[in-house]
Amino acid sequence: SRRFSRPSRTSPAQCVSAELAISIEHSMSAVNFALGALTGAAATAVAADAYPSMLPSLGFSRPKDIELKYFDFAGAAEKVRFTLLMGGVPFKDTRVNFADWGKMKETTKFGQLPLMYLNGEEKPYAQSGAMLRFAGAITGLMPKDPVQAFKVDEAIGLDDDLRREMRPSIMLSYDQTIKPKEKARKVKEMREKLAANEIPRFLSHFEKMLENSEYLCGSSATIADAQFLTTCRWLGSGVIDHIPADITTKYPNITAFRTRMEAKPEIAAYLNKPK
Asked: For residue 232, what pLDDT band results from cuts at 50, 70 and 90?
């Protein structure tokens, strides 16, 4: 006769243990998947920083056509121009005459320049800071690594603070409600204080940032360097009344930085281009 084995009984404790094992296995799978995704994202960021030309293959799109529209001087658009030039991204550099600005202003986004047009679209993008970061993203001059990007934004913020100190005297110089002699006196007083105190204070910070580095945020140029170069050239242009044209030359690291940046072939060609 056949013998049939009696089915084994599973205790409640064994059931709980089995369910717990399955739960742990699923949890570990989820953790491994998350770690893999993070590793992949980190690798993508590192690759994008090291090899900006890989941007399209990493899923980032670069516009085929870019038009940057601004007045015929450096101003708020120059940092964007420098970034696109350093990144080797072609763009149409459209200059607007002041004579045309009065009629044009009402039709522009936010009533201001610069404007950026992508791929021939009718609706432009505004705000030079946004354009700078966009240009940095498509050229690889804005790091993907969050900590490195933090350093870049920190340097840009410091430069913005310096320019903010300059703004009251600039706005006063355009004020038509003040008598010319009184305005000239006030502007002179404000600028002399800036040249003696605030500008040197900020330049000292930048000088220290460049002590052991060729650029503000490391061994390669970023959008922060494009912006600071614009500021250095503005301060040393001689066009700001009562601000000595040699104000930045007292700082050897800044002087070397400016020389280094202006010697870049793409920037040198732009600066030496006949006006």
From this structure: very high
